[in-house]
Specification:
Structural class: mainly alpha
Number of strands: 3
Helix content: 55-70%
Largest sheet: 3 strands, antiparallel
Oligomer: single chain
Strand content: under 5%
Radius of gyration: 22 Å
Shape: elongated
Distance between the termini: 19 Å
Order of helices and strands: HHEEEHHHHHHHHHHHHHHH
Length: about 425
């Protein structure tokens, strides 16, 4: 094998690893660091890594007199699969520790990429239903609201999966999901069943926001990857606008059918502390299963999410604004998640994202669009609050990771070069040559 072929195989392995990480929500800094560590370990020094939201590029030039070897991969598939993310993360650790060689790692990454989902599809659908029910409990819903929210979440998952198979853009699937949830609330409101439609709509909005890249976008912005951060923020904005359009369409169709469900922005609020803790734990655990997290993650995620959401609730009840309260709780999530993730051998990103799902600002977004739909300009204020909460959550968990991760000599040198805490991938770069 020539030196060029050897270099190409190493670059190809690093690119395939980076593709799996990027497509599953890892930050650009983590992807860059992991690809650099793999190349460095396999004998390629000073490889040039360029990461954007859709393209990964690796280039290596041994000397000025040699031609550069450049390879690229496009990141197109973005359905979150934390089982794949965990397996690739463990594979990278094993590779850097010398447990497998390059060819064995390449065969394993091919197997991971081609393997189907670890859970049956019906369990995924049911898990989204559990997530919706957990949010409804968090917001103080009774058993009727819990059942409707669970049914709406299951219906949204099935609908969005079918639309994804037809390659429909994310915006339209978000519109369809929000429209389905609102029409279910309209349909039940037309019956004698006692139901607060505001709780159902609020619960399903949070469910629709659960897959958004809040953490990734803020992490990329804080670590200097501004192009990728802008792309992630744009994706979040488009998906959020899709939710708003879908709910507005549902309200309009309900009015045309003579069913005015009279959404009251003030009627959907957090429940009592025990229900808040239980609802957050159920919501986070359900979400973790829905995105194919390893089973060992479920109980820790539920415990951390319940505790953090309860802390945020207590702080707001004692006069602190929502965004700072969410930020304080998020710092705790980031700090604890690092130790928990190491203990159960999963990337911290899995624990962090699952735990902040119950705290996503779906309620503020719902209140905003309800007021704006009535041509009330004060609806802008809840939307600003929603943005503040989202930023506080993302920045808070990253700050917690900064505080938790070890700051030894090599780690400090690596993090200065790669800019930021590691949510995926090894902290230390090892070399065998």
């Amino acid at each position: 094998m020539t030196d060029v072929q050897d270099t190409q195989r190493t670059l190809d392995l690093a690119l395939r690893i980076g593709e799996v990480l990027m497509s599953n929500g890892a930050g650009a800094a983590d992807v860059t660091a992991t690809m650099s560590s793999v190349c460095h370990h396999l004998g390629i020094r000073n490889a040039l890594v360029d990461v954007t939201f859709t393209t990964l590029t690796l280039s290596h030039q041994p000397s000025v007199d040699d031609a550069a070897v450049t390879m690229r991969r496009h990141v197109t598939h973005r359905e979150i699969d934390y089982a794949d993310l965990t397996q690739v993360d463990l594979l990278v650790y094993e590779l850097l520790a010398g447990g497998v060689d390059r060819d064995e790692a390449a065969a394993e990454i091919a197997r991971i990429s081609s393997t189907g989902r670890p859970y049956p599809r019906w369990l995924t659908t049911l898990s989204w239903g559990v997530t919706g029910a957990g949010v409804a409990l968090l917001l103080g819903g009774d058993w009727v609201v819990l059942l409707v929210a669970a049914a709406a979440a299951c219906g949204i998952e099935v609908l969005q999966r079918q639309l994804e198979k037809r390659r429909l853009p994310l915006f339209y699937s978000q519109v369809a999901g929000a429209l389905l949830a609102t029409m279910m609330a309209v349909g039940i409101a037309a019956t004698p069943v006692p139901l607060n439609p505001s709780l159902v709509v609020s619960a399903t909005i949070i469910m629709l926001l659960a897959g958004l890249g809040f953490v990734g976008s803020i992490q990329d912005a804080l670590t200097g990857f501004y192009i990728t951060a802008n792309a992630r923020v744009m994706e979040v904005m488009i998906a959020t606008i899709g939710v708003i359009v879908g709910v507005s369409m549902g309200l309009g169709l309900g009015a045309m059918l003579g069913v005015d469900i009279q959404l009251d922005p003030g009627s959907a609020g957090l429940s009592r502390l025990p229900a808040v803790i239980a609802g957050a734990a159920i919501c986070a655990s359900g979400f973790a299963i829905a995105v194919y997290s390893p089973p060992r993650v479920i109980l820790p995620v539920g415990a951390i999410a319940g505790s953090a959401t309860g802390l945020s609730f207590v702080l707001t009840q004692n006069g602190m604004d929502r965004a700072p309260a969410a930020g304080v709780a998020a710092v705790g999530i980031g700090f604890v998640s690092y130790a928990i993730a190491r203990a159960i051998r999963v990337p911290p990103l899995i624990v962090i994202v699952s735990c902040i799902v119950p705290m996503l600002p779906g309620l503020s977004i719902y209140r905003s669009l309800s007021l704006l739909a009535d041509e009330n300009i004060t609806g802008v204020l809840p939307m600003i609050t929603a943005g503040g909460v989202a930023i506080a959550l993302s920045a808070g968990v990253l700050l917690g990771e900064y505080a938790a991760q070890p700051l030894g000599r090599e780690a400090r040198r690596l993090e200065r070069r790669l800019s930021g805490p590691r949510l995926v991938g090894p902290l230390r770069a090892r070399s065998r040559r």
